[in-house]
């Protein structure tokens, strides 16, 4: 899921990598010679996170995007569609509708999903599940390679309500999960995931302490399997530091970190055992949870100066266009306005600018980066100097999400 270097070697994505590496080599040679930088290739990102709205109908205590929710800024639907139409012939392959806010609250959510599929894009939706009726309506336009992930984080209705605080007083986790069989029936090829952010005592959003949920891991996996989800994904709680970056902060665990990690390991084992009788169901451990458990998470905070993934994956929101999900809404990570890619050449110029000024070795030194391996792989290709092959002996898996 997070092996982005492997994804980038697929035939559909490799030409963009070749063009970018060639440009970086020319740019570094020009800088060394004191000459102007060459123009960036006429390419858009391969994959984007698209926040359709900042509106949210929950008040989750563990929300990483709390400070940018329910803002006045809104997308101009016509400009947003124009931007995407201009990005597709320049290489855009996939869109993850996420946020920021709750994507299904966007007034035109269903027709927008239809529009994205008409452009030939892979589409994913990350939702809180409160408007699963809209996901059910959109399922007819989705297909193989697309996915929906619901951020649920609990097994019991009681803990789910305390963690998420939905505006609708009668909404329950039971009701949310009851939609899954209908969505799968409407589109059997669609992959559906149950997302579980693991929280522990000591974690907080500012002055608000989060509710601990790690004791419900196995029960959540059982609920996910019984409800018809294809997998449950476990990931650790992240906090937003003062400079805006999303970070993993194990130091804030109340009590012994080793004891908490042991409980998480036990929860993963119990989750696998509890769902062993459901053929095809998967228990997925995110990269940042895996490295936290292995004790190697600090290795993933060591980035090259240039974050190369800024060229290949960006974040479009009503607040502007940003270089990374970990810096969503942060001024220093902003490339331009929300409609940046609707303006010819503006997106390329803004991308070239941030590639030069954003020092990932400094700005991301506390971020346990999912793109760590891909960034160093790309840095190695640039520094190697040898011509890259036109094609690689890699199978096209049609997984273009970055």
Structure description:
- The chain is α/β, with parallel strands linked by helices.
- It has a domain at 48-301: TIM Barrel (Alpha-Beta Barrel), CATH 3.20.20.70.
- Helices cover 36% and strands 14% of the residues.
- The chain is built from 15 helices and 14 strands.
- It has helices at residues 4-8, 14-32, 77-87, 109-118, 132-138, 157-164, 173-178, 180-186, 217-227, 257-274, 287-294, 309-312, 346-357, 360-363, 372-384; strands spanning 47-51, 94-98, 122-127, 147-151, 191-198, 204-205, 208-209, 231-236, 239-240, 246-247, 282-285, 313-317, 320-322, 334-336.
- The strands form three sheets. It has a ten-stranded mixed beta sheet.
- The chain starts with a helix and ends in an 18-residue tail after the last helix.
- The model has no long low-confidence stretch (mean pLDDT 92).
């Amino acid at each position: 899921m997070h092996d982005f270097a492997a994804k980038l070697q697929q035939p559909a994505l490799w030409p963009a990598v070749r063009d970018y590496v060639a440009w970086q080599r020319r740019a570094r040679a020009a800088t060394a010679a004191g000459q102007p930088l060459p123009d960036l290739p006429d390419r858009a990102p391969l994959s984007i996170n698209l926040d359709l709205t900042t509106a949210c109908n929950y008040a989750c205590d563990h929300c990483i995007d709390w400070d940018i929710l329910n803002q006045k800024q809104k997308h101009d639907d016509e400009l947003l569609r124009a931007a995407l139409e201009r990005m597709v012939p320049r290489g855009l392959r996939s869109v993850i509708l996420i946020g920021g806010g709750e994507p299904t609250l966007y007034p035109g959510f269903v027709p927008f999903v239809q529009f994205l599929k008409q452009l030939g894009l892979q589409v994913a939706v990350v939702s809180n599940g409160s408007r699963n009726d809209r996901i059910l309506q959109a399922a007819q336009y989705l297909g193989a390679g697309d996915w929906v992930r619901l951020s649920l984080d609990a097994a019991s209705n009681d803990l789910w309500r305390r963690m998420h605080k939905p505006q609708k007083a009668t909404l329950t986790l039971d009701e949310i999960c009851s939609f899954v069989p209908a969505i799968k029936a409407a589109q059997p090829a669609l992959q559906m995931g149950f997302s579980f952010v693991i929280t522990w005592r000591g974690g907080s959003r500012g002055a608000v302490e989060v509710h601990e949920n790690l004791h419900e891991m196995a029960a959540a996996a059982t609920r996910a399997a019984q409800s018809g989800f294809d997998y449950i994904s476990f990931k650790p709680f992240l906090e937003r530091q003062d400079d805006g970056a999303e970070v993993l902060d194990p130091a804030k665990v109340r009590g012994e970190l080793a004891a908490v990690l042991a409980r998480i390991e036990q929860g993963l084992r119990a989750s696998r055992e509890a769902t062993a009788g459901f053929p095809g169901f998967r228990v997925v451990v995110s990269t940042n949870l895996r490295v936290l458990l292995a004790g190697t998470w600090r290795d993933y905070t060591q980035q090259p100066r240039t974050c190369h993934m800024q060229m290949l994956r960006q974040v479009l929101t009503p607040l502007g266009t940003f270089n990374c999900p970990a810096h969503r809404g942060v001024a220093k990570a902003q490339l331009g306005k929300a409609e940046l890619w609707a303006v010819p050449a503006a997106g390329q110029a803004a991308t070239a600018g941030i590639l030069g000024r954003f020092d990932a070795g400094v700005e991301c030194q506390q971020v346990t980066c999912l793109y760590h391996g891909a960034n160093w792989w790309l840095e190695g290709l640039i520094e190697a100097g040898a011509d890259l092959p036109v094609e690689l002996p890699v199978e096209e898996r049609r997984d273009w999400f970055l």
